[in-house]
Hints:
Elements: H1 15-32, H2 35-47, E1 51-58, E2 61-68, E3 71-77, E4 82-87, E5 95-102, E6 108-115, E7 121-127, E8 132-148, E9 151-158, E10 171-178, E11 183-187, E12 195-201, E13 207-214, E14 218-225, E15 233-237, E16 242-249, E17 252-258, E18 265-270, E19 274-279, E20 286-292, E21 295-302, E22 305-312, E23 317-322, E24 328-335, E25 338-344, E26 351-356, E27 359-364, E28 373-380, E29 386-393, E30 402-406, H3 424-428, E31 432-437, H4 446-450, H5 458-473, E32 477-483, H6 485-496, E33 503-507, H7 526-529, H8 535-544, H9 546-549, E34 558-564, H10 573-584, E35 589-594, H11 604-622
Parallel strand pairs: 30-31, 30-32, 32-33, 33-34, 34-35
Antiparallel strand pairs: 1-2, 2-3, 3-4, 5-6, 6-7, 7-8, 8-9, 9-10, 10-11, 12-13, 13-14, 14-15, 16-17, 17-18, 18-19, 20-21, 21-22, 22-23, 24-25, 25-26, 26-27, 28-29, 29-31
Helix pairs in contact: 2-11, 5-6
Amino acid sequence: MDVDRFSYLEDLEGVVTIRFIERHNRRLRSFLGGLPTKLYPRIDKYFGVEQVIQFMPTDRGVYVLSRDREGYKVSRVSDEASENVVSSSMLGDNAVIAGIYPHPDRDMLGVFYTLGGGDEGYLKIFDESSLEVVDSLEGSIWNLVWVDSDTYYYVRFYRYGYTPDGVEAPASRVYRRGLEGYEELVFGEGLATNNIIQLHRDLGSSWLYVTVSRGWVESRIYGGVVDEPSSWGMIFFREGVMSQPISHLDGVDYVIVYDGGGNGRVLAIEGRTSVRELIPENGYPLRGGVVFGNTLLLNYLVHASSRLRTFSLDGSLVIEYVSKDPVYISMVRAYGDRVYMLVRSFSTPQYLARFDDSGFEAVYGGREVIELEVSEEFIKSEDGVDIHIFKIRDPKADERGCAIVYGYGGFSIPLTPMYLGHIIPYLEDGWVFIMANLRGGGEYGEEWHRMGMKRNKINVFKDFKSVISWVKGNGYKVVAWGGSNGGLLVGATFTLYPGLIDIAVIGYPVLDMLRFHKLYIGRLWTTEYGDPDDPRDRAYLMQYSPYHSLRPGMDYPSTLVYTGLHDDRVHPAHAFKFVARMEELGYDVYLRVETESGHLGASPETKVSEYADIMAFIYRKLGIV
């Protein structure tokens, strides 16, 4: 398709677009009938279970951000008790709390939230004793770090237009701001387009790290005294190499560097000049770590499950901790002599845990919701590469012969054990759920990522095809499901390999690979996909772009595409144009447009309604109910 005849659907406020959305929503409602209402309680039962999203330890206790069926809430947890501080109901209808920033020693709490789950939202600083708002900002804001009693840093991400120093968006800058309204740019002036800044406060010390990443392929680490931006100097940079800081202790910076095979090794850098390898790279990717006391705790991924190892500061292995069931551990943070982390599994929602030499102990949450059977397999891709999968089923259910195959394969993001409340009703009905660890993700390190990015992207679709073929070869009907970059995965797979998939479910997707860089923050993704303005990249992108690959007379599956009008990360026009083209060609396609959700999510009620519609669509198409 050489001419983009549906580009008018990029205008979200246009009359034709609005009518297009309304017509498709009515059509889907007519097809689903009353089935979603019947399915809603089954999904709500499991999706509404409380799970922890973030946490931050302070002198006054650990602040925990969680979500349950009532919405989002922030609690302060101590050894004695837990008390609610702020909830989403206080912030507005459909509020999604995306970040919490408690002051380390004052009754002051920063909360970033959006109305509808977009990337842009509101930062409010609350006086906890009165819940009075003492400061507020709007925009795409993250990484608030407290400097002193009434001053903080934050990162502002410019999504469109130009930064104040004249650099074209997308770009980010660090500001210092006082509660009385004083503000100044302290880092990032002149930093080029497509650079993302992250702040990392070394808790319990006076040290701050600033990481500048060029997309998902290269990063620079700066560091210095938290209240002296002039001291923030370069600690590590190597062209084309990703890196991340761990901790600063006694004049030594401990950093992870993803060079060599891309799995990560730990360097000890003294005085920004003396560099020595402390922990060499091994066969599995290192996802992060922390220093506490005289111990280095590192978090590895072994076949997409977490494994913890502790080392002395001379690099000697002390202990390795392996969970008996597949788990994923993230956000490891030390505060004083305590180490906290988030832990989750397929049967247990994410919870806050405290770690010691005997393992981890639940501090907030940690209840297993359902007993599931989890097995693992390796599937050969077309070129002989082994693709790891998790296969999940309910051991109490009789198998129905239907499988959901889920994948992502991009941006070095690993698919790991996770609680999927919206999937459990399928498992109770005898389905199996297959999670595929495809190239392009982060399951096997940076080399694995680069084997599925830019002009290697088609490897990801071949991997997914091989997994689906294996599942079908074992007698299952296949529903292929993916969101965001995973929506691209599903769309590209069924257009490249017609007849392979029985039903396609595509959520908040990237589907137009020739114009993604023109929509919202899409230019940032050129480091992952390639640049459509480069003729060689454009030719490669054209080979698999789902929107441009649709052809008449193909054996495409029944397809549901779903998106949200508040998605300000992936433009909804990707979904609209793809559906319009499929509809024009006479294929069986449905569109669901949520008016209250964005890429970050939505209220629990809105998400359960969305998942109930998806389940109803799948069951209607398979004739199950």
